[in-house]
Specification:
- There is one protein chain.
- This protein has 176 residues and is α+β, with helices and mostly antiparallel strands.
- Strands 4-5-10-9 form a 4-stranded antiparallel β-sheet, with no helix packed on it. The protein has a 3-stranded antiparallel β-sheet with strand order 1-2-3, covered by helices on one side. A 3-stranded antiparallel β-sheet has the order 6-7-8, with no helix packed on it.
- It has 2 helices and 10 strands; from the N terminus they run ααββββββββββ.
- Keywords: Stress response.
Length: 176
């Protein structure tokens, strides 16, 4: 019985290794010979490309790209602003957004909530960051608070409290 469990457990690692090989092939196809195709002096700043792999609620892997290298078909386009690595934690009473934006002063960070999206802009002499994050519909934008420390931005936004009418089928009447 334990042999079967070990076999299945090792299959997960085989799948992860295959995903990593596929990502390496994809990155090589996108960026291979990139230096020779780019005109000298046209772009100033770092070239950032990264991938984060998480397991979704259905057990399938979710691959998220970040950085300033974007895919347009088979070509790679470099944008001036880097898209930071972001994690959205949707809790019962609040939403917490954590973004990695190292190298900028906190007074250079602009955070806005507009049309159901959290928009993060940060710009310093050498770095630019930009990211739009889709937020759940039941947030209270006026409660948003942000902290920035050691290159990590944390934005907390409260959610609307569920109405009493939704609780247990109606409005509760107090007994005197």
């Amino acid at each position: 019985m334990s042999f079967i469990w070990r076999r299945r457990f090792s299959d997960i690692f085989d799948e992860i290794e295959e995903m990593i090989r596929e990502m390496e092939r994809l990155a090589e196809a996108m960026l291979g010979g990139f230096e020779t195709r780019m005109p000298r002096g046209e772009f100033k700043g770092p070239i950032v490309y990264g991938v984060r792999i998480t397991i979704g609620p259905d057990g399938r892997p979710i691959i998220e790209e970040f950085g300033n290298v974007k895919r347009r078909g088979r070509r790679a386009i470099i944008e001036e602003a880097v898209e930071p690595l972001v994690e959205v934690i949707d809790e019962k009473d609040k939403v917490v957004v954590i973004a990695e934006i190292p190298g900028v002063e906190k007074d250079k960070i602009d955070i806005r909530i507009k049309d159901g999206k959290l928009i993060i802009r940060a710009e310093d002499r050498e770095r630019k960051y930009y990211k739009e994050i889709e937020l759940p519909p039941n947030i209270k934008p006026e409660t948003a608070k942000a902290k920035y420390k050691n290159g990590v931005l944390e934005v907390t936004i409260e959610k609307e409290k569920p109405e009493e009418e939704k609780e247990e089928g109606g409005i509760r009447v107090k007994v005197e």
